[in-house]
C-alpha cells in the first residue's frame, strides 16, 4: 500500500498578520526538543506503517526552513530510517525565501529533497511588508535561483490575491515575475480573514483596507485565466502545474490515499480513520516524552459524512468524481444519492459530465462553495 507522510514544523521567524496555521514565532529554544520528539514519533509510526511504502514526503509548517539545516537534516534522515520511502518518492520542503541561501539549498538537495514549495505570495515589497512577511521579492528570486543552482528543478510558488493595498497590476506583475523565474507549479490563494488573527481585529477596527469584491474577482479571473495559456494546467481548484509537475503529495489528500502526519497539529488518515495530533508543541513534546502518541481519533464518520467528504475532495480536482469509483466505494450509483444536486448544478452550468467523471466547470470552481453545498446530504 502506498501512503504519504506529512511532517509539521511549527516554527516561524514572525507571525504573518493573516495566518491561522499552527505556528509559533520566537520559540527557537523549542526547536531541538521538538525535533527529538518528531524523531521518536516517526520511529513509532514507522512501525505501524511497516507494510507499505511512502510515495511522497512533505515537510510543511510553519516554516520548515526556519530550522537550522542541522536540525532539518536530522528530521529528513529520521524519516528515511523510519518509513520505507520509495526510490522515486516526491520529497517536498516548504521554504520561506528569507530563510534560505545557496548552502541551505545544496544541503536540501543532498538530503534527497526533490521539490520546493516557496511562499512568494507577492512581488511587491510594500504589500509583503503590510501582510507581515519577512521576505522581499528579491529574496524569492534568489531562492528560486539557488534552488536551481543546487539541482532542485521542481519549484512551486504560492501566490496570493485580495491582499490589502493590492491591485490587479500587482497580480499581473506577480504572474510575470513567476513566469520569468520559470517555476513549474503555482498555488493560488485568496486572502481570507480568519477569526483570532491580527487581520481579523484590524478588519473590525477598519484599519485593514481590502480590495473590493469586484477587484478581488478581477484578480482571481486574471490568475485563473492567464496561467493555463502560459502552460499551467489547473489540476485542482487552487493549483496549476506544467505537465508532470503536479504535487503528488497533495493529489493523495484529494484522492483517498492514506497519509501519516507527524508533529504538533498534524492530521493523519489511516485505515479509513482520521486522527489529529495535539495542537500545542509543548504538550506534543511532553506526550512523546512519556512514550505516548499525541493523536486523537476523530469521530468515525457516518456513511453520509464519508460520501460528502469523498465528493468534496474529488470535486476539488479538475478530473472530478469518478462515478465508477464512487459506486465501488459506497455500493450505490452516485445518481441515486445525488441525482437532484447533479441535475441542478448541471442546469446552472457549474457541473459537467465527461467519460464517466463529474467535474466542476470553470464557473463551478469559481463558485466552489455553492457547488460543495449541493453535496451536503
Ligand atoms: S510564514 Fe506561513 S506559517 Fe509562518 S506565520 Fe507566515 S503564513 Fe503563517
Here the CATH topology of the largest domain equals TIM Barrel
| Number of structural units classed as domains | 2
CATH homologous superfamily caption of the largest domain: Aldolase class I
- The end-to-end span amounts to 31 Å
Helix content: 40-55%
Enumerate the distinct ligands: iron/sulfur cluster
Number of helices: 15
Assign the CATH class of the largest domain. Answer: Alpha Beta
The average pLDDT score comes to 96
> How would you sum up the major sheet?
9 strands, mixed
Strand content: 15-25%
The CATH architecture designation of the largest domain is Alpha-Beta Barrel
Strand order of the largest sheet: 9-10-8-7-6-5-4-1-11
From the structure above, extract its key features.
alpha/beta, TIM Barrel, Arc Repressor Mutant, subunit A, 2 domains, binds iron/sulfur cluster
Write structural notes for this entry.
- The protein folds into 2 domains: 2-254, Aldolase class I (TIM Barrel), CATH 3.20.20.70; 303-374, Arc Repressor Mutant, subunit A, CATH 1.10.10.10.
- It has 15 helices and 17 strands.
- The protein has helices spanning 31-48, 69-82, 102-110, 125-130, 137-150, 168-180, 198-205, 213-226, 248-254, 281-289, 303-316, 323-330, 334-347, 362-366, 368-374; strands at residues 2-9, 11-12, 24-25, 53-61, 85-95, 115-121, 154-161, 185-190, 233-236, 239-241, 259-262, 267-270, 273-277, 295-297, 321-322, 351-354, 357-360.
- Helix 3 (102-110) crosses helix 5.
- It is globular, with a radius of gyration of 21 Å.
- The structure holds iron/sulfur cluster.
Amino acid at each position: 500500500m502506498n501512503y504519504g507522510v506529512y511532517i509539521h514544523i511549527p516554527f516561524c521567524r514572525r507571525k504573518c498578520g493573516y495566518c491561522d496555521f499552527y505556528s509559533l514565532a520566537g520559540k527557537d529554544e523549542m526547536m531541538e526538543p521538538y525535533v527529538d520528539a518528531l524523531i521518536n514519533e516517526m520511529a513509532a509510526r514507522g512501525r505501524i506503517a511497516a507494510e507499505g511504502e511512502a510515495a511522497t514526503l512533505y515537510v510543511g509548517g510553519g516554516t520548515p526552513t526556519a530550522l537550522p539545516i542541522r536540525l532539518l537534516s536530522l528530521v529528513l534522515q529520521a524519516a528515511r530510517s523510519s518509513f520505507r520511502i520509495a526510490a522515486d518518492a516526491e520529497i517536498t520542503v516548504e521554504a520561506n525565501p528569507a530563510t534560505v541561501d545557496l548552502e541551505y539549498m545544496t544541503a536540501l538537495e543532498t538530503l534527497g529533497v526533490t521539490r520546493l514549495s516557496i511562499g512568494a505570495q507577492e512581488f511587491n515589497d510594500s504589500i509583503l511588508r503590510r501582510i507581515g512577511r519577512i521576505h522581499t521579492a528579491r529574496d524569492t528570486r534568489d531562492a528560486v535561483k539557488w534552488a536551481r543552482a543546487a539541482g532542485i528543478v521542481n519549484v512551486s510558488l504560492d501566490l496570493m490575491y485580495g491582499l490589502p493595498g493590492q491591485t490587479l497590476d500587482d497580480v499581473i506583475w506577480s504572474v510575470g515575475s513567476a513566469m520569468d523565474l520559470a517555476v513549474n507549479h503555482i498555488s493560488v490563494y485568496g486572502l481570507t480573514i480568519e477569526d483570532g488573527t491580527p487581520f481579523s481585529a484590524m478588519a473590525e477596527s477598519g484599519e485593514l483596507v481590502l480590495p473590493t469584491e469586484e477587484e478581488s474577482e478581477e484578480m482571481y479571473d486574471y490568475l485563473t485565466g492567464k496561467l493555463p495559456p502560459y502552460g499551467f494546467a489547473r489540476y485542482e481548484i487552487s493549483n496549476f502545474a506544467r505537465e508532470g509537475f503536479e504535487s503528488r503529495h497533495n493529489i493523495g489528500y484529494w484522492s483517498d490515499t492514506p497519509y501519516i502526519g507527524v508533529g504538533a497539529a498534524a492530521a493523519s488518515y489511516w485505515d479509513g480513520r482520521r486522527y489529529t495530533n495535539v495542537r500545542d508543541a509543548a504538550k506534543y513534546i511532553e506526550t512523546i516524552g512519556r512514550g505516548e502518541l499525541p493523536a486523537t481519533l476523530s469521530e468515525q464518520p457516518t456513511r453520509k459524512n464519508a460520501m460528502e467528504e469523498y465528493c468534496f475532495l474529488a470535486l476539488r480536482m479538475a478530473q472530478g468524481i469518478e462515478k465508477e469509483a464512487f459506486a465501488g466505494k459506497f455500493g450505490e450509483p452516485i445518481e441515486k444519492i445525488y441525482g437532484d444536486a447533479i441535475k441542478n448544478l448541471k442546469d446552472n452550468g457549474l457541473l459537467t459530465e465527461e467519460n464517466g467523471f463529474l467535474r466542476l466547470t470553470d464557473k463551478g470552481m469559481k463558485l466552489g462553495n455553492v457547488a460543495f453545498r449541493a453535496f451536503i446530504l
